[in-house]
Amino acid sequence: MVRIGDRLLGRDSAPFVIAEMSGNHNQSLDRALAIVDAIAATGAHALKLQTYTADTMTLDVDHPDFAIGEANSLWAGRTLHDLYDEAHTPWEWHAPIFERARSSA
Fold first, then answer.
1. For the segment 2-12, what is each residue's pLDDT rounded down to a tens digit?
2. Structural domain of 18
3. Which of 23, 33, 42, 51 is the 20 to 30 Å CA partner of 93?
4. How many independent structural domains does the chain possess?
């Protein structure tokens, strides 16, 4: 058995549901907090954040190996660095997101 907060997890336990915010906040803290509220309303038990910066994920280079080459992609022609920079959750958002999540529980 594993304990997360006040929940025991194991073979005989109900599922533990984790919702992921990903880059769906569109670089808006207000939207991120609204996502936390929406996740809480679903009854999910936890929220997963992806914490990185573009520089920790890829190189900032203009080279085909670091670009989206799929012509039908929404991100066609953009670099991976640009995408990660646009989608990352800023470190300074953690405190307000965690505070909102705790108050929504």
1. 999 889 999 99
2. 1-51+90-105
3. 42
4. 2
Long-range contacts at 13-19 (CB < 8 A, ≥ 24 apart): 16/45, 16/46, 17/42, 17/43, 17/44, 17/45, 17/46, 18/44, 18/45, 18/46, 18/47, 18/48, 19/44, 19/46, 19/47, 19/48
Task: Report the percentage of the chain scoring pLDDT > 90.
Answer: 85
**pTM, 2 dp:** 0.82
The angle, 0 to 180 degrees and rounded to 10, between the axes of the packed helices 94-104 and 29-42 is 30
- 3-state secondary structure at position 31: helix
| Pairwise CA distance, residues 89 & 22, whole Å | 8
